[in-house]
Amino acid sequence: MTGAWAACLLVSFLLPSCLPTPHRGRHHPPEPHAEAYHMSRDPFDPHRDSEEFRRDAPDDKREFTRRESEDDPMVVQTKKGKVRGISLTAATGKKVDAWLGIPYAQKPLGNLRFRHPRPGDKWDGILNTTTQPNSCVQIIDTVFGDFSGATMWNPNTPLSEDCLYVNVVVPKPRPTGAAVMVWVFGGGFYSGTNTLEVYDHNILVSEENIILVSMQYRVASLGFLYFGTPDVPGNAGMFDQMMALQWVHDNIAAFGGNPNNITLFGESAGAVSVSLHLLSPLSRNLFSQAIMESGSATAPWAIISREESLLRGLRLAEAVGCPHERHEVSAAIDCLKKKDPVDLVNNEWGTLGICEFPFVPVIDGAFLDESPSRALANKNFKKTNILMGSNTEEGYYFIIYYLTELFRKEENVYVNRQEFLRAVTELNPYFNSISRQAIVFEYTDWLNPDDPVSNRDSLDKMVGDYHFTCNVNEFAHRYAETGSTVYMYYYRHRTVANPWPSWTGVMHADEINYVFGEPLNPTKSYTAQEVDLSKRIMRYWANFAKTGNPSQSPNGVWTPTFWPPHTAFGREYLTLDVNSTATGRGPRLKQCAFWKKYLPQLQQQTRTGYADITATLVVAKSRRQNVAKPPSDDEDIHRARSIPIPVPAPVVIFSEPLVLFQMTSRTSRLARTAPTGRARCDGRRAALPACWWCRRWRRSERGPSNAQEDPPRGVPLKRIRN
After folding, report:
1. Burial 186-216 (b: 16+ CB within 10 A, else e)
2. What is the model's pLDDT at position 3?
């Protein structure tokens, strides 16, 4: 008997050392390269801990732990285990309950890198979810130093591949059957995080009595690399979002939400994601309705062909020293899985066109089974209420990053006629010379063709119409044609304290602050009119989430301003501005008819082959295989972007370089040069940090991938937010 007691005491003494420590929760210990992940201004502790039941503890201790979890209102039972949240106070003084960093999938580490997410494991005890989760690995914007207008989009929590978590914020007192809003952040599919200050959930939740959920999803090559294999199937970031939506659908009732009333909303790439979920046969039934801010699946940057995505993956492999030939895909995958994730995202950036991003969704045959344009034409999408819109100056943000020599944020910008003509060429590399002349004609103020202000503003409208506004309009119109209820807005207010120069107007993403209620924060420099505008927008968004109508609340109370539905005939929209609640038709119907109807036909009828479009690109010696004609879904992508489809016949592999270019310092214009064997990248930031992409006919749709160049080393990265 004495021996048995001694054994029990020995077990009691040893067991505690086996229990989890605070550094062994749902985050792995820092990896060898983890120092690169941590940002100096991070206010959060990334580590979690879980409270395990001690099986050897006395009965009263076990009962106390269970009783504590039952009595603690911050402990919620999910399908995978219990989570403990935290009570927070919004800037307005109102209380909310928050669960920050709940895992919704397994950690995508090791062999799970690039793969679709897998369901998470169950856990014992209570998981503390009281601090913000990691942000997924991505590049950091350093182009403008510590300028707040740019750094506000940089991640504010440590970067890690271990990042698949959701945040849940609930009003106090805890509701029952509350409407749920699920936020999808933007960032061009290569950046972004749900922890940004501008996305602070507390004010919107406490003011509108809704439950707000946001997710982290993988971005850049870690989320959207595609090789068409089980190991790298593509669209991993979209499957992350879908698994997070499934988690919300399965668990939100435990937090007081209604799983049958989930509104998915996002901005820019987040809005593209939302629209893709409306089209996807896999995820369309996981939510009820959708809000899309400045983005849709029909945008020219929203998806790329499988062939182009595969080639970009091989170029990334080449950049980081991995096998990179077409027949070496398996070896390339094995090598890429072993590379430091920071090296991957730092070497992937390269693009010719404005608003183009290295790795984005593809039509994979699983998440997406046809192109967005075809799905819309076939009415193959979720039939539900949608709300969407755009801002008046969508283009400036991207132009400032792309044409840095011409558009300097520190000074007033004036664009003369010659600069305007050169900029039109640079900003529209896919179009032939005749189509570019049509663009010049459409966006010239013929009353003042030499007016430098009109020329500057026309460039903004040109980029904004083509990449944002007209695609939002097209998506809304297609929905309205089916009889679905659609609401459209046009956001026109420029924040008084906006850090960007006044000539930038109402930029891309400027409405986000008002959607999340930041003007109600008394520590911020907003005017009383801006506070009222934010209250109006929050009420519209919340009403839509609750009833499907932004003008009507569940108790039948109507907003002072009626928001008319957007019909296929009337094309109505509501102006969102401090001094206006006017309605209109469009917006920008004439310009969008130009982009969507006239220009594609002109491009098709005047196409003379690749020569007139790709004269400034590189053809050089290469061992790479020819590009095959893309399948039919990829043809839809080409047509939507007015890109010629490669001919099926083999393309000649030249033994000597034929055409080379160099980037000049003035607006980084492309200039024809004599064959020199190697091109040079002389421009500043506008010359693109990874211009080695340019030197290989990067766009497989327009010709062969024939240049073989080493990527430049030590070139600063630029960042364009979308």
Report:
1. bbbbbbbbbbbeebbbbbbbbbbbbbbbbbb
2. 52
Please give the tally of structural domains in the chain.
3
- C-alpha to C-alpha distance for 627 and 634, rounded to whole angstroms: 13
Q: Is the pLDDT of residue 304 over 90?
A: yes
| Domain co-membership, 583 together with 637 | no
- Percent of the chain scored above 70 by pLDDT? 74
Q: Which of 45-49, 121-125, 620-624 has the lowest average pLDDT? A: 620-624
Whether 268 sits among the annotated catalytic residues: the reply is yes
- For the cut 50, the answer to whether the pLDDT of residue 645 exceeds it is no
Which CA distances in Å does 41 have to 146, 192, 461?
12, 16, 36
Structure tokens at 281: 């046969």
Q: Where are the alpha helices (DSSP H) in 339-449?
A: 341-347, 372-377, 396-402, 417-427, 433-442
Are the beta carbons of 185 and 193 closer than 8 angstroms?
yes
The catalytically annotated residue of 268, 305, 484, 642 is: 268
Q: Which two tokens stand for residue 691?
A: 């211009």
CB atoms within 10 A of CB 330: 12
pTM: 0.78
Identify which of 181, 169, 177 has the alpha carbon closest to the alpha carbon of residue 253.
177
Catalytic annotation, pick one of 161, 207, 394, 426? 394
Phi/psi at 606 (nearest 5 deg)?
-105, 10
Please state, in angstroms and as integers, the Cα–Cα distance from residue 393 to each residue in 298, 417, 587, following that order: 19, 21, 13
Q: How does DSSP assign 428-493, residue by residue?
A: -TTS-HHHHHHHHHHT--TTSTT-HHHHHHHHHHHHHIIIIIHHHHHHHHHHHHTT--EEEEEE-P
Across the beta sheet with 178-184, the strand order is: 86-89, 95-103, 165-171, 211-215, 178-184, 257-267, 289-293, 386-391, 486-491, 572-576, 583-585
**Do both 331 and 283 map to the same domain?**
no
Confidence of residue 314 (pLDDT cuts 50, 70, 90): very high
Using DSSP's 3-state secondary structure scheme, residue 223 falls into helix
pLDDT of residue 274: 99
Judgement on whether residues 264 and 124 belong to the same structural domain of the protein:
yes
Tokens for 704? 């062969």
Overall residue count recorded for the chain in this entry: 722
User: Residue type at 94?
Assistant: K
For residue 653, the enclosing domain spans: 304-356+611-722
Does the annotation mark 508 as catalytic? yes
> Contact, 332 vs 324, CB < 8 A?
yes
Q: Residue 514's Cα: distance from chain center in Å?
A: 19
Determine the pLDDT at residue 636: 57
Domain assignment present for residue 485? The answer is yes
Catalytic pick from 508, 530, 572, 709? 508
Dihedral (Cα; 81, 86, 87, 88), 10-degree rounding: -130
716 and 588 housed in the same domain? no
What is the β-pairing status of strands 583-585 and 572-576? antiparallel
Closest among 324, 342, 348 to 334, alpha carbons compared? 324
Closest CA to 482 of 384, 564, 563, 387: 384
- Annotation marks residue 23 as catalytic: no
